[in-house]
Amino acid sequence: MIRLKNADQIAKIRESCQMLSGLLEALSPLVQPGITTQDLDHFAEEYIVSRGGRPSFLGYEGYPASLCVSPNEVVIHGIPGKRKLLEGDVVGLDCGIDLGGHFSDAAITLPVGKISPEVDGLLTVTRECLARAIAAIKPGARVHDISRAVYGHAVSHGYGVVRQYCGHGVGLEIHEDPQIPNYVSPGPNPRLVPGMVIALEPMINLGTGDVRLLDDDWTVVTLDKKISAHYEHSVAIHADWTVEVLTSWTYPSTSR
Ligand code: MF3
Ligand code: CO
After folding, report:
1. Number of neighbours of residue 251 by Cβ within 10 angstroms
2. Can you list the domains of the chain with their CATH numbers?
3. What pLDDT tens digit does each residue of the chain (256 aa) get?
């Protein structure tokens, strides 16, 4: 069941999304060689709780942290721990906030120090995939139009597209219908309509799109251990068909 949101609900979801964008902006300068993934998680938890939010990932299906921290070959759902980030790594940061029952979800992949041109290209194209996903939202479009936009752009650059995980409705729960795959799946293909709030999240790999789950039952890694990138925005479709990126922030230059 797809839960459509009214303007008042979207306004409250926007507040949650703005807190989350602020968190990701505050995290990005901390991403430096030597910081541990759990340092980033602790910062995120304190940031959210001190502003009256609840980290929505913490305890979700038993997930043990507030932030997913996914370095290099980790696609998504990396559990924060003692691993130190190293010069030349990239790291995905994925977070969600429950602000009075209004849920946000967003992710960004950041370079740690200076990264190779090859990896910088993957990050750029993955951001372009997310931009194309957002641009595919228009009257008459369906979920598969988003999927096709992401998949076509990634494949045109020779990258692998992760199929086992997808975008989703968001706003009143952490995950809602519909599912929004990053490839044209055989599954449901609902029409996009005003009142939808959706999380779009391309997961794109330098090598194969195939992934496997580690023994911790959370960490998703690329099968060939090559680098993966992930960006995610929560997006609202307004009654007048304005498409609002609720979690927007200025992407830091990847060669920062
Ligand atoms: N961020 C994921 C998503 O975008 C959800 C993470 S679930 C958690 O859908 F348990 F890891 F938090
Ligand atoms: Co999501």
Report:
1. 16
2. 7-245 (3.90.230.10)
3. 999 999 999 999 999 999 999 999 999 999 999 999 999 999 999 999 999 999 999 999 999 999 999 999 999 999 999 999 999 999 999 999 999 999 999 999 999 999 999 999 999 999 999 999 999 999 999 999 999 999 999 999 999 999 999 999 999 999 999 999 999 999 999 999 999 999 999 999 999 999 999 999 999 999 999 999 999 999 999 999 999 999 998 765 443 3
Task: Answer whether 108's CB lies under 8 Å from 231's CB.
Answer: yes
Cβ of 57 below 6 Å from ligand 1: yes
Nearest ligand to the C-alpha atom of residue 199: 2
- Rounded to two decimals, the pTM is 0.97
Q: How far is the CA of 187 from the centre of ligand 2 (A)?
A: 18
Q: Exposed (0-12), middle (13-18) or buried (19+): which is 158, by Cβ within 10 Å?
A: exposed
Q: Measured in angstroms, how far is the CA atom of residue 169 from the centroid of ligand 2?
A: 8
What is d(CA 216, CA 193) in angstroms, rounded to the nearest whole number?
38
Ligand 1 within 6 A of CB of 231:
no
